[in-house]
TrEMBL record:
The chain crosses the membrane at residues 41-60, 80-97, 117-135. This is YeeE/YedE family protein. Pfam families: DUF6691. It comes from the Bacteria. The keyword Membrane applies. It comes from Zooshikella harenae. Keywords: Membrane, Transmembrane, Transmembrane helix. The keyword Membrane applies.
Length: 139
């Protein structure tokens, strides 16, 4: 049952990314280009996502001891900002700014068969495989 729910959530997420045009790298790059051809519409998408998250967190996570399909919530316990978080955020931001796409929209875009998206996902997988090496050097 968990896998079916996860699949449905993933499909819903992909549809939402498509409808919001977050799978369109040019739209994302225009959003990031605040000094040029800036497109603020994705800010509304982000505000909407934060609103839905906050509502779900306040109405479901906070008052309940466990989720519907698990024994307990898997909430982050780390509260500090460390070097790994900062370096990882910088690398993620550089990749997003250069390509106009991040992992979620890339996976949603994979069905289109665009060679650039396939190359992005390949590079992302290589980066994920190499990340433990970078993490060792940071610490």
């Amino acid at each position: 049952m968990n896998k079916i729910v996860a699949l449905c959530c993933g499909i819903l997420f992909g549809i939402g990314l498509s409808v919001a045009q977050m799978v369109n790298p040019q739209k994302v790059l225009n959003f990031l280009d605040i000094s040029g051809d800036w497109d603020p519409s994705l800010a509304l998408v982000m505000v909407g996502a934060l609103f839905v998250y906050a509502l779900g967190y306040l109405l479901w996570v906070k008052p309940n001891n466990k989720p519907l399909l698990e024994e307990h919530f898997f909430l982050p316990t780390k509260k500090t900002i460390d070097k790994s978080l900062v370096v990882g955020s910088i690398i993620f931001g550089i990749g997003w700014g250069l390509s106009g796409i991040c992992p979620g929209p890339a996976l949603a875009n994979l069905s289109g068969g665009d060679l650039k998206i396939v190359a992005f996902i390949g590079a992302m997988l290589v980066g994920m495989k190499c990340s433990p090496l970078l993490a060792q050097r940071i610490h």
